[in-house]
Amino acid sequence: MSAILDISNVTMKFGELVANENVSFTINEREIVSLIGPNGAGKTTLFNCITGFYAPFSGQVTYYLPAGESRDITGMPSYKTCNMGITRTFQIVKTLSEMTVEQNVMTGSFLHVQRTREAREEARRILEMTGLMEKKDVLGRNLTIVDRKRVEIARALATKPRILMLDECMAGLNQTEIKDVMNLVISLRRQGLTLLIVEHIMEAIMPISDKIVVLNAGKKIAEGKPQEIADNEEVIKAYLGEKYHAKSQKH
Amino acid sequence: MLGQILVNGLMTGFVYALVAVGLTLTWGVMDVINFSHGEFLLWGMYAAFGLWSVFTIDPLFALPICAVLIFILGGLTYFGIIKRVLNAPGLTALLATFGLSMILKNLAQFFFTANYRNVTNTIFGNDTFRVLGLHIRQDYLVAAAGSLLLTILVMLFINKTKTGVAIKATSINRQTAQLMGINTDKIFAITFGLSGACVGAAAALMVSFTPITPNSCTLYSILAFVIVALGGFGNIKGALLAALIVGVVEALGGFWLDTTFKYAIVFAVYLIVMQIRPKGLFGW
Amino acid sequence: MVKAKNIFKANLFGFVLLAALVLIPFAVGGNADVHNIIIYILIYSMVGEGWNLISGFTGQTSFGHAAYFGIGAYTVAVLGNYYNVVPWIGMLAGAVIATVLAFLINFKLFKLKGHYFAIATLAVCEILRTLFSVWSYVGSGDGIKLIFRQENKLLWLAMDVRDRLPFLFVTLAVFVAIFILCRWLENSKMGFYWKAIRESHEVAESIGVNPQKYKVYAMMISAFIAAIGGAFYVQFFKYIDSSVFALNVSMIFVLVTVLGGIGNVYGPIIGSIIYYGLELVMRRAMSGTTSGINLIIFGALLVIVVCYQPKGIVGIYEDIVNRRRKRKLDNAAARAVSGGEQQ
């Protein structure tokens, strides 16, 4: 499998506060990579650094095009990276509230088509795939949170990304809805997409991830297959804290 | 000569500062720009004129009355209009206050016609006295000094009194202020009223050397906006400094180029400054 | 033919309005007052449509559109008087100049957001006003009076306001063309992108849209249209001076669009009809001069409408329609429930 995105020694500072410190890992094509860590670990910050919302203090983000060429996309504004095939969703959903569901997705489709009619057809395809077809004429501001998250993903898919980055898209969903998202993620991978997922919900990402990267206090503390991560002492310590880890070791 | 220009510019600047202070407060606290600020000033001037022509009260003594009158106007504006558009998107509040400005301006025109009104024979007339080789007009000086004094009073009010601090808190974060038990509705009303009072006071100070006509008030609105934007919204010290800069630039521009260019220069300066610091000189 | 029928239904109001605008000039016979008001309405609606593109769809409020309007007017006057250029060519030239100016200025200006941007547009326009008031080439403070050369009459192709009815219909035709253009733009890729930018620069960027680029496009097209309005304006008044760049002029475009319905293609024309309709009514009622009462009423209307429905009259209309639709649905649902219970 060839690499599609390489994050190399990325450090992000806000003034004196170090949010990410020397984080490095590589994402390969058609991998589902999950980025986890306790609250405040710097996951969303890293996300923002990768997608160009922040320009990292130091380090490099390299993107590999299908032909094998590489591009340094460090700090590149997100509309440029989107044009190259990298699309992200937001943790706090930002549905275009004055547009209908269909129009929201169409706005994404326009990245690759010029005519409104084509955009509408493209959008309808994606609405079918994400189960939003029935709600296509509902205004953004009248949607439930769950539907907004679906629209968020649908709109991102409309931009035909090679790599899709989901930022805590499962927060607030119930069991069925989470399973739906998991299935969607797997089917997307089958269609050729690569996915980077930031998540808190372990039961959702463990079964579907090829690789898990764990952050804690801005640093990467572990990387590997789900099982390796589950058994990793550092990870357990990070989530449960020193005291509890020590306690659990005693027995 | 340059010194003279500078001094005149500074004095104008102080008066501008008093006019702008109210606007920067409402902008900072409520994110509302009162497009009818110039019309508030106008009615303040007419009030001073009325008190002078009917009751022969010198504008300086009429000042408190004018301040109170426009304070009331500000309060009424808040409860009648601003309150309803506080959370509306975009520049809705701006447009609502523009509608108000149309009403106020044309009402003034209807009652007072467009004829220039002048207040003459005030206590501090246009005698000049000489200091360090510069000619300083008494009434300009009184206006400038009065404006500076009142601006400082407002600053003290904001920083040292309980209500003032509440205003400051509300401007930083409305929700948190509410959670802290601050009645933001009352704060908004007071802020708007205060902005009116400042402008009413400025009107009384200006009336002895400014001809009153409905057509001139728009310019003051625009100047006030530029000053507030330059100083960074919500920042009183910024507004004072920006007002002084604008006063001096206006004076210098009028001198070096031509009086017609006075305001164009001010606007050009605004554009240039905003390129360098998009949130104003001291804005955050 | 189904498609044509659908277009008719969807734009019913537009067609009715169009019919009215075509028929009324004939219905009032030789009443110049009404003809003039209609021309006014059309000119300001034109510019309003343009303003709506950048301030309505894209959400970047401009208080300085008189800049492009005035440039359109001045270009036609200068080219017409000094170089004997036909108004249509002058109009095109003016529109191009305005577009280029829009590009140059807003490139930098769009760094600013919200209120700061609005004031900057105002500042630019004021600077223009000062420049034009002292520039001798354009007549400085005296302005330019249009010269009508009798030998060119045919070439002017109905841009001669002395033939009022043809001028009216030409203005109407151009307005309709602009209206259709704006409608089309609204539903095009550009329109979608503009609306996304209006809501959130971040969202727009995340789906591949460069906000700066599209904001500049909107401003350029908007300026082009405003300049066309300016061309008709100068042909109508036969005179132009630097007061065309005054804030008052810029604000009329803002006000009529906001009152009518900002962000909607019908907004500008509805607002203009009210604005000038009021003026006409007041002038008749007060025999000659309005004493500004129409402006007081308009100001009050604006305040009321803006406070209760920021989307203007169009918004009020939509509210009524939605409420009726909802009531119908509720009634149907209630009937279904009670019908079921009776079983």
Descriptive notes:
- With 251 residues, chain A is an alpha/beta fold.
- Chain A folds into two domains: 172 residues, P-loop containing nucleotide triphosphate hydrolases (Rossmann fold), CATH 3.40.50.300; 63 residues, no CATH class.
- Chain A contains ten helices and ten strands.
- In chain A, the strands form two sheets. In chain A, strands 6-7-8-3-9-10 form a six-stranded mixed beta sheet, sandwiched between helices. Chain A has a four-stranded antiparallel beta sheet with strand order 2-1-4-5, with helices on one face.
- In chain A, strand 4 and strand 5 form a beta hairpin.
- The termini of chain A are far apart.
- A two-stranded antiparallel ribbon of chain B has the order 1-2.
- In chain B, helix 3 packs antiparallel against helix 8 and helix 6 crosses helix 8.
- The longest helix of chain B has 29 residues.
- The model of chain B has no long low-confidence stretch (mean pLDDT 86).
- The mean pLDDT of chain C is 87.
- Chains in contact: A-C, B-C.
- At the B-C interface, helix 3, helix 4, helix 9 and helix 11 of B face helix 6, helix 12 and helix 14 of C.
